[in-house]
Structure formats: structure tokens, C-alpha cells
Amino acid sequence: MSKPIDVALIGGGIMSATLGTLLQRLEPGWSISIFESLGDIAQESSNPWNNAGTGHSALCELNYTPEKNGQIDVSKAIEVNEQFQVSRQFWSYLVDEGALPDPKAFINEVPHMSFVWGEKNVDYLRRRFDALKDHPLFAGMEYSEDAKVIRSWAPLLIPGRRKDQPIAATRIAAGTDVDFGALTRLLVGAMTDKGAKLKTDHRVIGLKRTKDGLWKIRIRHEIGGTVLEVTARFVFVGAGGGALNLLQKSGIPEIKGFGGFPISGEFLRTDDPEVVAQHAAKVYGKASVGAPPMSVPHLDTRVVNGQASLLFGPYAGFSTKYLKKGSLLDLFQALRPHNISTFLGAGLKNLDLVKYLVGEVFASRAKKIRALQEFAPNAKGSDWRLITAGQRVQVMKKDANGKAVIQFGTEVVSAADGSIAGLLGASPGASTAVPIMLTLAEKCFPDKIAEWTPKLTEMVPSYGATVGADEKVAAATLGRTAAALQIQP
What we know:
The structure is a single chain. By secondary structure, this protein is α+β, with helices and mostly antiparallel strands. It is built from 14 helices and 22 strands. Helix 2 (75-97) packs across helix 12 (433-444) and helix 2 (75-97) packs across helix 14 (471-485).
């Protein structure tokens, strides 16, 4: 067998690209290989048409500010915003370094808005605004219940709406739209320029720990079917929905008890210039009763390859696939004796969610257009077409009390010795890839962190601290990263 590679990255998405980019700067002498089963990278959840590209900073996503005991809990919103600032700092460093020479190729200014209707929801949004407006990371947030003002922010929202309907909106002009497909390609391109190896059409079919602590990786070349083996000192499984099955193949005890709950989805999309020109914002509403957090309805401006389009959705549904280009057997192949109780327990506990998702699968196109018209009353169905969104696999696990739960978020699962790790879960995902991968590095390379800290602090000045705790620090950080990324501070 050939000489072991230092780092094997399984999956060619934003997570692998981010981790590889970090490690390449922390350990320039390490060899890195990326193995992607498809013919190109960034084809699953990192693809811009498979996600909303919100640049999840909790500026507009109402699921991050739930109401608890009559109070608006903003702690998760602040946490997510802090994480996004870490990503912004790292991207800014790469722009200054020259690895990302044109930030407009992956990030653009798009205001972030929340929009609700009905007295109860208006009251909620008003209180959310009051709870966030003075926080340094939410500086510049505006609030209005005036239809004329809201129309000036997002013209499609108002025409055709009942004049007596209570409405409210918040807006932060300094929001962003991020094309994670473009960012992934740029990062991987810069990695390969520095010596990393990219192997597309290479599907990992086996993972086994050797007696000397290395990992033997069995790989099938999808063109021709040839099977080969490589060994690696460290393995990251960043295969999106495919991560669960691969971590199970590795045999690490840490993956026992975990399952995956798949959620499919669709968006309505229009590229009609006249329609697109009337809406320049990402507008998030409140989720339907029983809907999962990642199914919060939103009307989004997307900028892909310099071209603006609009997306509305997502329309969530249920599929047994774990990847958009996966197999209907994915869910069943993930069943193990150690996680059957997790699947059954979480499923029984979330029957309302299952019923909701199945209902969404069979929703008619007319029903989907009506949902769009709740946001944009005068929207014409003929201007919009349905596209299939990326597949999301939510973490299923036992909580501290031993009860099976569906966890909405991401989770790093790693072996005790740190030689292999994988990422399970979804939103906020891509937008917080940098802090997630920093956490993974701390878990898997604890003996290296002290040595790496100066470089980590150079790449992410707030490393080990927070941005939002100090108004001056927040303003300076937002201003500096905005200038580097060529966006509004």
C-alpha cells in the first residue's frame, strides 16, 4: 500500500472544503485528499439551488427566537450570529491572503427581513425587535407596521393584501446572500493549488481501523467499478446525509444510538426579470404549526453566477433518501440493533411532524402557489416553477434522560482518540461551517491547539472570545470583514 495520507476528507461539500482549508494553513506539510462520490463537488446541500444561502446570522429567521413563558428567547439568535461572524472573519482572511480573490463570486449584499401578519404574530415580532435592537450584532435593525414602509423594503409583499390585515416587518440592510457552491469550489481550488488531491467519482464503501491506529479506506471508482484502498491518519466524514452510514461502517462506539430523520423539500423559483426586479431581500415568516424549523417559509433573493433569481419555500416532505442523489434504501440501511429504539421512539414522539411532512408530499401545485400568495398576494403561478431542494437529515439521538429525540441542528461525532470524526445534521450548517470545523479541530487535535492558537487567532481574531459582548469590538469586526468582503457593514 502507498504511504498513508495525513487527512482524508470524505465528501466534496462546504464542510470538507472548510476543514481542509483550515488544516492546510495550520499544518502546511500535511497531505490532504478529498474523495467525492459524484462527478463534481458541491452537488448536494452545498449547491446554491439546494439551500437558501441565507448566511444564517439569525437576523431574520424567527425559529431562532422562540417565545418561552411569555418572553422572547434571543439566546440562540445571538449564538448563531456569533458563529456567522467567525465564518466572516475567516473568509475575510482568505480574501486578504488572495485565496478568495473576488468575494462577489460567493457573497453579496441582500437585506434580511422578517414579515408576519395577524395581531398575535405582529405582537410577537414587535417584542422580538425590542429584545434584539440594542444588541451590537443586530445594530441597524428597523421595525415597521406601516404598509408603505414595508412596500418600500419589499414591494411584492403588499399589493393585493387586505388593507385591514395587521402586518409587521423587521429589516437589516446589511444581510447577505451566500453561494456555498461557489465558495466550496473556490476553497477546493485553492487547496489543490497548494497540493491537496481531489478525487471525484470516488465512493467510499468501507472504513476500518488498522492495528497501528490508521484508517483503511475502501473506495470504488464509479467509472469502471475499480476498488482501491488507501490509508489515512485522520478521516473526516463530511458526506452530508451519507455521514451516518459511513460512521456506522467505521465501527466507532460513539456513533451507537444515532439515527437520521430525512426531510425532503421543494422550492418555487422564478428567473423572470420583471418579477425579480420587484424583490431584493430575504424575507422569513413564521413556520406552520407542526412544521420543522428548517421549513420556515421564506421569499429569497438568490445570486448565483452574478444572476439574481427568487426562491420561495421550502415545501417540506418525507423521503427515505439521505441524499438528493441517494437511494430510497438509505434510511433502512441505517437501521442497527443499537438505534432501532431511537428511530421508533423519535418517530412516535413526532407523529405530528411525520403527518405534516407526508401531507406536504401530496400537496398540489395550487396549494403551493397559495402559500406563495400569502407572502406575495399578486404572484402568478405561471411565473414560477418547482425545483427540488437538497435533502436534510436531522439528528436522531437519546437525550440526557435516555429519551429518543429529533435534534434540529448539527453535531460532531468523533472517536475517542480523535482519529475520525463526522458531521451529522443540518441547519444552520453551511453558514457556520468555520466555527463547526474549529470545534472539530479542538476535539480531534487537542494536543495541537496550543501550538495552533497564534495562527488561529490570525485567521479568526475573535478565536476563543466573542464579538457581540463589546459594542466597539462588534462594530470594528463587522466593519473590517464587510470591507474585505465588499459588503455593507
